[in-house]
Every structure is written in C-alpha cells, then in structure tokens.
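Supplementary Methods, section 5.1.

A reviewer requested that the exact input to the structure prediction be made available. We therefore reproduce it here, unchanged from the version used in the analyses.
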Amino acid sequence: MVDNVKTASDKVFVDIRQAIVEGVIPQGSKISEPELSKQHQVSRATLREALNRLESCHLIERKANVGSRVIALTEEKLRDIYQVRSSLEGLACRLAAENMTCDEIQEVKSLLNQHLNTQRVKQGESYYQEEGDLDFHYRIIKGSKNNHLINLLCNEMYQLVRMYRVQMGMNGPRVTKAFDEHLAIINAIEAGDGELAELLMKRHISASGKNIENKFKQD
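The structure derived from this sequence is encoded token-by-token as follows.
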C-alpha cells in the first residue's frame, strides 16, 4: 500500500499507524494528545484528524470521559476478524484465479522469491512482509479486481489484521509452512483453479489464526 501523503495530518496518521501496528506504541496504552502533538510537531486539531482516521482503522478506541487508547489484541477479537478474513480472502482468491493477468501472477511469484531470498524463511526463523505491494495477501486481494472487496480488506480491515500478523504471527515454527502455503495458493491461481485457491487460502488463514491463538495461550 502506497499512502498518498499530502498533508501534515496524512503524515502523522501514517507515522502513528505504523508505530501502533509494529508495537512501538504498546497495545492498550493511553493516547496523550499533548505528547503526540509535541512529538510530531503538529497542532491538536491536526492530530485529532489523524486520530479519527486511526479509529476508523480500528487501531484506537475512544470512550467518553476516558479518552483514546490503542486497541489491545485479544483472542476474541482475533477469532472474529480471522473468521471474516478467511471468507473474504478466500473469495478474493477465487476471483483472482479468474481476473489476474499472467504478468500479475509472475510479479507475485517474483515477490515470493524475493521473500525467500532476503529473509530468514529458509531457516524457519522469520517471515516479515512489508505492507501494500510487498505483501503477498495485499497483492492477491488487489488481483481480485473487485473494488468493494478491495476496500473492505485493504482499507477497513487491513491494518488491524496486519497488527496481529506483525506482532504475533511472523516468527516461529509456522514460517516455512506459511511460505509454502503462499506458493501453493499462487500456483492454484495460475492454474485458473479458483475453487482450490479459495480452499487453500481459507486453510492458510485458519492455520495462521490458530498459531496466534497458541501464542496467546503461552503468555
């Protein structure tokens, strides 16, 4: 995802969003408007505009007489969002098998090769994907060519899903399996087998969700 950063509000929104997703601003922490205004050198009005957008991304919660807090990742929220994610990304795969061009499919395969060669995937240590066009899931969703589905998955839900993935799901024993599952999905899309691609994506997301659930239980 390439953000179109035009204003001070855009920049502070993108910067704070990244800090929340990557855990630099901890889960559940209280948002201090004076502190963030000073840190990012913006007015309170500009900051509040950015906070409104973060709330619409489900990254912060606002309560009357309490103020704003970064959301806390929980098992319950994980199950809810991963159930929706599984169905919608499964559909995206089915549509991608119908609508992705050969060039687009080869670009995704090249992206996977880049992931394999530049990260610790082979050793099963880490599989960190940057957001947007450097993210396998994002590319498949865009390949569905369904604008409503793209908006739901790449705008409304994307950053919250990414927060779970970045903070809890990109290391450990599932790393090499997750990569192999990505490869199987794009191969099914290349073969034009939408039914198989959808099934593989649903299984992939279910396994990823269970992996994160297990990490909750270990804490």
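The mean pLDDT is 89. These observations are discussed further in the main text.
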